[in-house]
Structures are given as structure tokens and as C-alpha cells.
Amino acid sequence: MSEESVPQRGGAAEVPPKGLLQQMEELMAALNADLSALDADLQAAGPGRDGGAGAVGAGDEREGR
Predict the structure, then answer these.
(1) Any idea of the CA torsion for 19, 25, 31, 34, to the nearest 10 degrees?
(2) How far apart are CA 59 and CA 65, in angstroms?
(3) How many Å apart are CA 41 and CA 28, to the nearest integer?
(4) Angle at alpha carbon of residue 55, lines to 61 and 35, rounded to 5°
(5) What span, in angstroms and rounded, lies between the C-alpha atoms of 18 and 63?
(6) What DSSP letter does each residue of the chain carry, written as one string?
(7) pLDDT at 1
(8) CA 61, 62, 63, 64 torsion-angle sign
(9) Residues 6+ apart with CB under 8 A from 52
(10) What pTM value is reported for the model?
């Protein structure tokens, strides 16, 4: 294979490719931020028609006692 057919990587301004772990960490940070914002929105909205997430199955544990 000649040098002409191989793409050359060079130049001081070129950013090296990110590793898979770094990409996953960035995605997890973005997901965490989105979930935190969603949680804040839900907390600000107050309980919904079903009484909030805590109301689902809340009495199930105590019925057997």
C-alpha cells in the first residue's frame, strides 16, 4: 500500500479521537443532567392525578400485617 492511499493524520489543531470510556462518561453526565432537570420539573409540578410516584403500591406492604 502506498502512502498516497493512507489518510494522513497530522496538524497541531487536530483533536485526538475520544476513547470509548470518555464518550460513555460524557453521555452518562448528560443523562444525569437531563434526569436531574426532569426530577426538578416533576417535583415543582407536585402530585399528579395518581397522587405522585409514592402512591403506587404504597399500601401493599402493610396489608399483610
Answers:
(1) -110
(2) 11
(3) 20
(4) 115
(5) 53
(6) --TTTSPP---TTPPPPPPHHHHHHHHHHHHHHHHHHHHHHHHHH---TT--GGGTTTTTTTTT-
(7) 52
(8) positive
(9) 46
(10) 0.47
| Listed residue (32, 50, 21) closest to 58, CA to CA | 50
Residue in the structure block whose three cell numbers are 448528560: 30
- Kindly report, residue by residue over 9-62, the tens digit of the pLDDT: 665 677 778 899 999 999 999 999 999 999 999 999 988 666 555 555 555 555
CA–CA separation, 43 and 57 (whole Å): 19
